[in-house]
Design a protein that fits this description.
two-stranded antiparallel sheet, eight-stranded mixed beta sheet, 170 residues
């Protein structure tokens, strides 16, 4: 068997097996952000986020990158931006969702982590959504696009004092 010929085919097969999962926290009014950050402080939700995304590629918009301020450890940090001159240490840059297929990914389970414009761009490509439903109302200026009609199947994965994590699938 000629292994040189099988390698491109194997890489193509791996690209076809990408699993795209959005991970987000939102209020009952769909608020996901305020003033470039989160409108709440929920340490337990951050632990859940870390548990699910560690060891996987994460895709975020430049504003989300700016709000975090540094690469998230033990993850492949990928930033989607329209600015062709933008770069940051610890981040790989893509300009369209389709560019994701050009990267060598650390894992085939890719998490889309925001913000609202990035969720909207990937919505049709997502396999599932992990949504922390924050029980309390919080004021904000950024909202999650509607997705429930696209992902009609919902299971509650975990329940906490201030939120519950729901998995939505097609």
């Amino acid at each position: 068997m000629d292994t040189d010929q099988s390698k491109p085919q194997q890489a193509q097969t791996m690209q076809q097996k990408l699993k795209l999962t959005a991970m987000v926290a939102m209020t009952p009014e769909r608020v996901i952000g305020k003033d470039g950050g989160l409108p709440w402080h929920l340490p337990e939700d951050l632990k859940v986020f870390r548990k699910y995304t560690t060891g996987h590629p994460i895709v975020m918009g430049r504003k989300t990158w700016d709000s975090i301020g540094k690469p998230l450890p033990k993850r492949q940090n990928i930033v989607l931006t329209r600015d062709t001159n933008w770069s940051a240490d610890g981040a790989e840059v893509i300009y369209t969702p389709e560019d994701l297929a050009t990267l060598k990914l650390m894992d085939n389970n890719v998490f889309i982590i925001g913000g609202a414009q990035v969720y909207a761009l990937f919505l049709d490509q997502l396999d599932e959504m992990l949504v922390s439903h924050v029980y309390e109302t919080h004021p904000g200026d950024t909202w999650l696009p509607e997705f429930e009609d696209t992902f009609p199947n919902m299971t509650i994965e975990e329940t906490y004092e201030t939120f519950e994590l729901r998995r939505y699938t097609r």
